[in-house]
Specification:
Length: 124
């Protein structure tokens, strides 16, 4: 996963668990794409202090993910929903007249969707 996307997802899921000061610095660095120098000037702290805070926040957020796996589950569920959407698109292309149970039939498509939804429910 691209680093920015990973950091943004971790922040979306666990950012509220950071202190206000940590959130402010981390948001400016990751979400607002401010430089360490810019953040240091605004916050009235050293560039090293900003760098250390960002590093600490990353470690904290990854620690939460390692324990809770919310981002992992979210991405897995999102991928499975994409699969379901692909199956439904396939259903649209198959048409309504192949309900006889043959390969590519509506019954087959329904079974595939049911299998994926069962997997999603097991993960929750």
């Amino acid at each position: 996963m691209e680093d920015f996307v990973e950091q943004a997802l971790l922040y979306d899921f666990y950012g509220e668990l950071l202190t206000e000061h940590q959130k402010c610095i981390y948001e400016d660095y990751i979400m607002n794409n401010l430089s360490v120098s810019e953040i240091a000037d605004v916050q009235g702290i050293s560039r090293q202090g900003v760098h250390d805070m960002v590093k600490r926040c990353r470690k904290i957020l990854k620690g939460y993910e390692n324990k809770l796996h919310l981002v992992e589950r979210f991405l897995s569920t999102k991928a499975k929903i994409g699969e379901i959407n692909g199956i439904l698109a396939e259903y649209d292309s198959v048409g309504y007249d192949q309900a006889d149970g043959g390969a590519g039939s509506v019954r087959d498509l329904v079974e595939r969707v049911k299998k994926i939804t069962d997997e999603i429910l097991e993960e929750l």
